[in-house]
Amino acid sequence: MSISNCIRSLLNIKDPNIIFSDNCVSQETVKGKTTHICKAILSVNTPPHCVHCGCINENHSIYKNGTKTVSIKLPNASNISTILRLKKPRFCCKKCNKGTIAETTCVKPNHSISTNTFHAAILESKSKRSVKDIAKSLNISHTTVNNWLKSINEDFVVSRLSLPEHLAFDEFRSVKSVKGKMSFIYMDADSGNVLDIVQNRQLGHLKSYFNTYPKEVRDKVKTITIDMYEPYIQLIKSCFHNAEIITDRFHIVQHLNRALNSTRVSVMNDTPDSKTKLKNYWKLILKDNLKLDSNDCHHYRCYKHLMSESMIVDDLLRVDKTFEETYWVHQRLTQAIRNKNMTSLLEILNDPPKNISIQMKKAIKTLKKYETSVSNAIKYPHSNGRIEGTNNLIKVIKRIAFGYRSFENFRTRVLLICNTMVRLEMKSTH
């Protein structure tokens, strides 16, 4: 293998017309940084016609007219900045007296940053790093990286020809410029692939968005998993006529936990003698009763004798009769959801005990209102677990970047990291 082939392979240059000679690599200090300088010549034939006037090259009507040396930024080699100094031949047309410079696939016309650097920046943008860190590692400006992200965002097209059979809807806290400060995200509930991010989660905006999908595509959706956000229910009934609504099991349990915790706080405020105990051991109250340790005893704060977890819970429940009844109703509901016991769940929702707290009565009334979707949570295996994990990833992206101003840049980074933009419909100029 020749020296040119070796260097082209090392620098990942695909253009075979770039020729390297012996001793073509040296080190120089450029803007205070040690930089690899690779010198090469672009060897191309005379063009068959003039790009300006269209004159065909006959009898040497187009002739070579010197060279022009350009500096092209390449991705770092061995963590050292690398610049390709390429001699490009000039050609002149005798008919129109206009000149042209030979071009290479290594870099776009009139640009000084290689296409490999562009691809490296996009690949780095798929990792959890800030734009400034990516730009610094590639020895380019963060404005350039942001402009590249904007360009691929403009060229990215969300297909309106199909939708998965099972969807998951949720929202997350977006950038400050977004109205309502919340944006909408939806994904394939089976694979966990993020399909798109919509700037505004308000009902009218979402209806307009999903109506861009043909009716026959929307009618193929079988289930949609959501939290108990009322506009999502109206959206599904309006746009997805054949879809079953599933209330996410996590949000059901969370709703019940909040009711029980609110009851605990009320009892704590009404019984000053037990306030410290109820405040310190709130986690045990929310824990599944079957998972409480009843054998291993330890010294606990507020107790003089050795106590186990189940003994502490029993002691706390004796503080108030209503609190005790509320606790056991909460346990029956959560265990019915975990065990997917539809009969037990509907029994409590349809005939709740009378001597439970007001907070738990309100929670049961809410679940009764969404009885069909709550029942579907037990009937179907789908949940919002993956989309909640993606929301946590979005928080990490925002924290690493110290926040975003532009929603478009933010959306692009999220879709890149979530692999939604893997197959980019890029323009030929890229």
UniProtKB/TrEMBL annotation:
Record domain Transposase IS204/IS1001/IS1096/IS1165 DDE: where: 168-414
Pfam families: DDE_Tnp_ISL3, Zn_ribbon_ISL3
InterPro entries, sorted: Transpos_ISL3, Transposase_DDE, Transposase_Znf
Stretches assigned to the Transposase IS204/IS1001/IS1096/IS1165 zinc-finger domain: 47-96
Protein name: Transposase
Native source organism of the sequence: Erysipelothrix larvae
Organism lineage: Bacteria, Bacillati, Bacillota, Erysipelotrichia, Erysipelotrichales
